[in-house]
Design brief:
single chain; about 80 residues; mainly alpha; about 0% strand; elongated
């Protein structure tokens, strides 16, 4: 994983945790600090704005859930 990808993943990890703890209005600066970023604009570098960051957090969580849902649905259909 490249340094940029690691930074992006660290930001997503921090955002997920801080949003869960404090809600979606958590300051982006707090997310950057929690992700170990020295540059406060790092979040905006990887994600254009707060909404894009939130969308990325949701997508990251929904992706695996969708795979599992599909497996369960396929198994149910196959069992009919």
């Amino acid at each position: 994983m490249s340094r940029g990808e690691k930074a992006k993943q660290d930001i997503l990890d921090a955002a997920e945790r801080l949003i869960a703890e404090h809600g979606i209005q958590v300051p982006l600066r707090d997310i950057a600090v929690a992700a170990g970023q020295r540059n406060n604009s790092a979040v905006n570098y990887y994600f254009r704005n707060r909404q894009d960051l939130i969308d990325a957090v949701v997508k990251r969580r929904l992706g695996p859930m969708e795979v599992q849902r599909r497996r369960m649905l396929d198994a149910a259909v196959a069992g009919e």
